[in-house]
Amino acid sequence: MVLLPVPLRDYFEANASFDQERMLASFSGDAVVHDERRSHRGSAAIRDWIAEATLANQAIAVPFAFRMEEGRYVVEATVSGAFAGSPVRLSFHFRLADDKIVELEIG
């Protein structure tokens, strides 16, 4: 795994073990996730998104590149799981504040 800031490393490590609560703990309470043309704001909505997008699809993201772009942390990852088209390469665009993820956009 590439060397990532702690909140991002925690998020991807928790994803690899399908640890929903640890994934959620990487986010601030009022964070927002943008994925598949939908937005999920706040802990309850993000918990549901993790269950739907990650757990239900057994989706694991493995980072292979990391960079800064316009004030955001961009992680390129290969995502594999029980979904059509697996594996896919996706970009995870993170904004951090106070060592928490406050925004994640996946595309």
Automatic annotation (TrEMBL):
It comes from Ancylobacter radicis. InterPro entries: NTF2-like_dom_sf (IPR032710), SnoaL-like (IPR037401). This is Nuclear transport factor 2 family protein. The lineage of its organism: Bacteria, Pseudomonadati, Pseudomonadota, Alphaproteobacteria, Hyphomicrobiales. Pfam families: SnoaL_2. Residues 9-103 form the SnoaL-like domain.
